[in-house]
Amino acid sequence: MLIQPYSSSWIPDFENLKAELEKGLQGIDYRIEHVGSTAVPGLAAKAIIDIDIIYAGGQAFEKIKSGLIQIGYYHNGNQGIADRDVFKRNANGSNEILDTIVHHLYVCKLNSPALERHLLFRDYLQKNEEARNTYQQMKYELAEKAAEDKKRYAALKEIHVNPFVDEIMDIMK
User: Fold this and answer.
1) Domain for residue 4, yes or no?
2) What is the number of domains present in the chain?
3) pTM (2 decimals)?
């Protein structure tokens, strides 16, 4: 099932991932945020932990990139979104936590629009039960419409969910 009911394990999964990431980022100025649906208690989601590593600027990105490479990630570019870079695990990973807890890892510049969108949307859903329920229903309907296919779901989400998120961003600004 693509969309799963909320799991109380998602918060400790994030904390475990964060602790492992921090091992590769010692001596660097950054912060790590749990974003996405798994960061919203009570919200059904794809069981994928979304993580943003946030940096202020300067040489921090290169230091973060180097640290992530050392612990088994590779840089996958920004995938068309400015100031938000994607990192993926190498196929030959050897870290029990980083290689078993499914996650998406982003490195975002402080005050970037992508980061702002992640944080504002998460915070709004955490505080607004009606919006959370509406979003959850949309996700279930899109998963059904996509016949549980991840790629079709992602494409449908771009079309149908982005206007909902944009509405919330307008409210939050």
Assistant:
1) no
2) 1
3) 0.94
